[in-house]
Design goal:
Structural class: mainly alpha
Largest sheet: 2 strands, antiparallel
CATH class of the largest domain: Mainly Alpha
Radius of gyration: 18 Å
Distance between the termini: 44 Å
CATH architecture of the largest domain: Orthogonal Bundle
Strand content: under 5%
CATH topology of the largest domain: Endonuclease III, domain 1
Shape: globular
Length: 213
């Protein structure tokens, strides 16, 4: 059964964010309600994040679909059983092939227990996930938001978030990690919801810019 993050103007997260930060509140009103699907398959979520690194959404989706088709489904077992030529033929780089194998092997031998880590505090989950080749802090934070639905995650290294904060709060260019952390303090304990609105806000701004003559 699919899970979602549902945000409306009367949601506790939105009420808090709008009261704590009127600038963000104005953006929230422009964006409107959000329904964000969560990826309940933890392994799939992590594997997809590895495949998507440094790619556009369109390219990542294309390669992920090719990997799924080549393997008949992405699981630890199908990744370990696949030869390198099959994975590379689906569009994966040599490094991403190695990263996926490490993720699959750790899952199969128990070094990474995805069910267990889902019960841990955020920082402990990040520590366990970043032990896997190819998973850095940003990827772990995306897992916390989009797979586990953790409510108070602010990915300071996310370029889109820093770009949006820079635009929204009057910086020249993208905001620094330090500026995002400072501005985001009042958003706690709902910084994940704030992030969703910032991402949607940037997409809205870009769409509006394309429509201008």
């Amino acid at each position: 059964m699919e899970s979602h993050i549902e945000l409306t103007l009367t949601s506790p997260e939105v009420v808090h964010l709008s009261a704590a930060d009127p600038t963000l509140g104005a953006l929230i009103e422009r964006v409107g309600p959000i329904s964000q699907r969560l990826e309940n398959d933890g392994f799939n979520s992590l594997a997809s994040a590895i495949v998507s690194q440094q790619l556009s959404d369109k390219a990542a989706t294309t390669i992920w679909n090719r990997v799924e088709a080549a393997l008949g489904g992405v699981t630890p077992e199908t990744i370990v059983a696949a030869d390198t030529d099959t994975l590379r033929g689906a569009g994966l780089s040599g490094s991403k092939t190695s990263f996926l194998r490490d993720l699959a092997e750790r899952t199969l031998d128990g070094r990474l227990d995805i069910s267990r880590i889902a019960t841990l505090p955020d920082d402990d989950i990040i520590a366990e996930l970043t032990a896997v080749k190819g998973i850095g802090r940003w990827t772990a934070e995306m897992y916390l938001i989009f797979s586990l639905g953790r409510p108070d995650v602010l990915a300071l290294d996310d370029g889109a978030l820093r770009t949006t904060v820079g635009w929204l709060y009057g910086f020249e260019g993208a905001a620094s990690r330090e500026d995002v952390a400072r501005i985001g303090e009042p958003w706690s304990p709902y910084r994940s919801a704030a992030s969703l609105y910032l991402w949607r806000g940037l997409a809205l701004r870009r769409a509006e810019a394309k429509e201008r003559p």
